[in-house]
Amino acid sequence: MRILFLLGILLSVNVGVAARQKVYDFNPKCRQAYEAIMALRLDQGVALLEEEKKQHPDNLMPYFLENYADFFTLFFNEDPALYAQKKWQRADRLARMEQGPSNSPYYLFTQAAIRFQWGMIRVKFSERWDAVWEIRKAYQQLKDNQKKFPNFLPNNMLAGAMQTVFGTIPEGYRWISNTLGMKGGIRQGMQQVQQVIDSNDETARIFKWEACYYYCYLKLFIENKPEDVWGFIQKYQMDTKNNYLFALMVANIAMNNQKATLGIKVLTERNDSAQYEEIYYVYYLMGNLKLCRQDEDANVYLQKFVERFKGKFYLKEALQRLSWYYYLHNNMDMANKYRKMIETKGNTETDADKQALKDAKSGRWPHPLMLKARLLSDGGYFTEALKLLQTKKAADFALMEEKLEYAYRLGRIYDEMGQDDNALTMYEVTVRTGANRPEYFAARASLQMGYIYEKRNDKEKARKCYQTCLDMKGHDYKNSLDQRAKAGIQRLNGG
Q: Over the range 413-422, which residues count as b (16 or more CB within 10 Å of their CB) and which as e?
């Protein structure tokens, strides 16, 4: 009788457990939390998720969405202490997602998204090998999920974004694509992301703004269609005032697309109340944008970034910009102070950081007029930059790299002002003179020529220019320029 009694208790426990099946319920409260997190109102979002855990303890969605909150904090701020504290939660959340019903499209999707986000985080903490395997596993799970649930469009958002990027991985990172064993395709990848944005499917609408975020970056950096990006942002009325993530994105795109005034406007007008997470990257953006505009307070923002940021990405570049600020203000004590710091702070994972270290070690300062023209041009102040350069001619510069930069800068300014023929003339001079030199000017000039010919639908010349860019060896910014050139060739081939 005692054994039967115990068996009865065990049976009732098992029945109770079976009745409490874990679920993926993206209910209104979870959607509200997701929207708050995607706007970087992280505390508000996490508080809503805690409420949901108490009200519906068997719902797995709060644990999935918590990963978004951790992702944004770790990815942007790169705090190693916080990383050490949060790292264990990756495995815990993956284990939780595996408790859900395997016949749900969220079963593999949630696991893939968590792996994808931790892959991006691990890149920031120099765990490159682990990052590669995270992304590989994420992609495999998404492809499996697409086969099982072809109408579940959130699959396409992440898989499409990855597929778009994979085909443009530069030679310096080819080991990644070889390890992943995946081939990309720009056209198909972009179509998948666009499908999520335009769909009226209820589940796709949940992820619409996240898909928009990926789409904008892919459209600019992979497809090289900046005007389309600005048109897209306006068409979909992306809220840069109350969505901090969008404000950072638009400011970053503005910084990379010669629109400093717009970037400064967006960051100045955003809602900066205490409900939003503190993201130190904003100081890096604002400092760079203001330096391009020659604002007197550009150093204030760059110094805030250097002092508060605990990570390593962009740090050498920020220190370089600070040294330039003081150099242009004839304060060589401060200029040398920050230049010296470049050698010991940050890392060289990005081409810009790598270049900052190389410049610092060279011991040479750029020609002040050329530096000022470069910054003005980078900010979109082309008329002012052109006026500066027109006070000189190539023969006025003593060093070959200065003569080369002079031709390149004129080419870029003419290019951005729509004077394509003048731009091509200066670019050709730059390529002819600098093809075998270590500066990046010739490779970038060849890339820009490719863009012009692609715009003119002269595919043969465009392809030749992109290939010329790829064929140049040993120059600065090699990886990033190769990626853009490969993307150009893929576009021409209809990839």
A: bbbbeebbee
